[in-house]
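check this:
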Amino acid sequence: MSDPARLQNFLDFSAEATAFTVFDLQGTGMVGDYMKTVDDVAGPAVLNALLEAYGKISAIASGASPADRKAQISREIMGDTKLGPIARNIIKLWYTGTWNKLPHSWSERFGPDLRDRTFVVSPSAYIEGLLWKAIGAHPAGAKAPGYGSWAFAPRIPDFEGDPAAPAQPNHASV
């Protein structure tokens, strides 16, 4: 898989796994750092296997319903003993900017790595974590709206299809 294709596949998988758009993920400026983190800790072969599995699902399930596609990803990637922990770590990486040490059972089965520890990828990774956008807040002391913004509770933005969202008024003229 060539670097541009590999990067795009990483972005596509990440977008589907995090429920953010590729545009949102690119906007964090963390794509290269996160892909490098996974390569450095888990190894390029493991990330390639995950991306290849995702590519196969994408090709096969392109016309499938979202529920069927989600079930296939859940079964073939998230449920896989080798790929599942890596995929879940990628999700956590995007949301928090933190690589979490892989489970002991994973390291025992697939080999330990001295670089596999819990760490924040960079100061930018903390600031750009999707967590902040998801909860409608800003990282403390790092982004606008600035001083005192944490005095108010965050407002979680509504999302399309949210059953708890208030009904939108009908503005159609009669």
Notes: The chain has one domain: 3-151. Residues 16 and 22 are 9 Å apart (CA to CA).
